[in-house]
Amino acid sequence: MQAARLHEYTEEMGEALSIDEIDRPSPTRSDHIVVEVEGAGWCQTDNHIIEGMWTDYVPQELPMTLGHENAGEVVEVGDEVSTVDVGDKVLCHPLMTCGQCRACRLGDDMHCENGEFPGLSTDGGFADYLLTSERAAVKLDDVSPVEIAPHADAGITAYHAAKKAVPHLFPGSHTVIIGVGGLGHIGLQAINAMSATTTIAVDLKDDALSLADRLGADHTINSGDEDVAETIEAITDGAGAEQVLDFVGADGTTALAPDIVAPGGDHHIIGYGGDIHEPSQALVNGEFSFVGNIVGKYTELQELVSLVESGEMHLETTQYGLGEINDVAESLEHGEIEGRAVIVP
Ligand code: NAD
Ligand code: ZN
User: What pTM, to 2 d.p., does this model score?
Assistant: First the structure.
């Protein structure tokens, strides 16, 4: 089969992956399933992986097939698989979890002690076939895999952060969404679907802000042209935003926290790559928190699929062939993708 593989870490996105002919995976464990990939979203995390940003956090062996936002049809199942069958259409949670450890028993899938993450720690879905496990599969009834693929990671991550924010939101509150890209455009809709807060979308690109506008943002701010802190102060009558969802996580966006988060509020870190350098006194004075977010729980992916099925989520996607994958990597690096790019192997 064909697979888009990373052979060495590089800053050159335009030639990062090579399309190799490799063996089709088969179940090596009784809970494994093989999925014929119909759609696999390209995430900015793929750019981060290519740059080698994950090597301090996750053991990786190259060459490795990338792709962690996968959906398709089950074509083979291990001996003990009982909840999915050959022929089922599935959306794949990014992690293959053990089901036995304490985190798994708490439903906290992302912190499984024995987890494997296809596309990050093992071969992923930018390929004709993907090996994952039964516990990762969410069965799809009414939606096609290629349409829903980005929800496997962009969606679940944005939903997970939104769900943490929602209990702190009330009518009259404000929520800031920084970065209306693949994740952010879903995060905005998840907040709108689950709360009566007033939303403020921030991006450097006018195209991203008009997408935010179409998807129901109450206010938009171009951070290239406007002073974000001053504008948010004016919109919130000086109160600040109760919740901030930062889908960029650059030095410049985390530095906004002391000025834009309301007392006691949260600045959620979802995008990453920058640093947080705030005076400890700013956190004392404002009693605000920085909150980390990594993907989400299996049950949250199920909830998100329900939200999609109820028609409350619009995914802005463009499809590309496997042979165009390095162009996609390069385009995303330069901010030229609207919503999400989906690779159709
Ligand atoms: P994307 O490129 O699709 O979207 C990023 C958006 O942010 C773009 O619209 C861009 O114009 C905007 N932007 C960039 N810099 C900005 C700035 N300084 N101020 C305002 N807007 C800015 O990326 P994506 O795939 O949505 O990923 C977003 C981030 O989330 C990445 O860092 C990615 O690695 C990360 N991510 C995190 C998790 C997690 O579990 N926490 C999961 C997936 C992705
Ligand atoms: Zn586990």
Answer: 0.98
